[in-house]
Design a protein that fits this description.
Blueprint: H1 5-22, E1 26-30, E2 33-37, E3 41-44, E4 47-51, H2 53-70, H3 76-108, E5 114-118, H4 124-152
Antiparallel strand pairs: 1-2, 1-5, 2-3, 3-4
Helix pairs in contact: 1-2, 1-4, 2-3, 3-4
């Protein structure tokens, strides 16, 4: 199971999403202080100001699905379906990141001076989406190869 390339791709997806769970996604600064957008809340100095629970839940699910997919190596069609589910979860997480960034930005729009920016962790779900596609492609190639070998027998 570990010798297959899709296992490595799926482990990379899980690692990228684990980093996304714990790293700040964006920052905001204004007259009211500095804030950081994390997976589960908009925080200011460790104190949660605005919850982003659904973003965190979708990232946790997106982190667990590849780990489950790795151990289903005997059922490649189920692995392909779970890769599709993972892709949908990642697209949903990216959309929720954008929504929460927009909503957090609106909090500071009324202030006379404010600035905001992205952290590198905000792009990790997009990179993970690329690795999910690579894993699904490798799983599909394995399935085609197994079916061709069954035809020969």
């Amino acid at each position: 199971m570990i010798q297959r390339i899709q296992t490595i791709h799926l482990l990379v997806v899980a690692a990228l999403l684990a980093v996304t769970l714990f790293a700040p996604l964006a920052w905001f600064a204004g007259a009211s202080g500095e804030f950081a957008l994390h997976a589960f809340a908009l925080r200011s100095g460790g104190e949660a100001v605005q919850p982003t629970l659904y973003l965190g839940i979708s990232l946790v699910l997106a982190c667990l699905v590849p780990l489950v997919t790795i151990f289903l190596f005997r059922n490649r069609m189920l692995q392909l379906r779970l890769c599709a589910v993972e892709a949908v979860l990642l697209v949903g997480a990216v959309v929720m990141e954008a929504v929460h960034y927009y909503l957090s930005r609106r909090v500071f729009a009324a202030e006379s001076f404010h600035t905001q920016g992205f952290e590198p962790a905000v792009a990790l779900p997009l990179v993970a989406l690329l690795f999910v596609w690579l894993a699904a492609r490798a799983i599909f190639r394995d399935e085609v190869m197994v079916r061709a070998a069954d035809r020969i027998r």
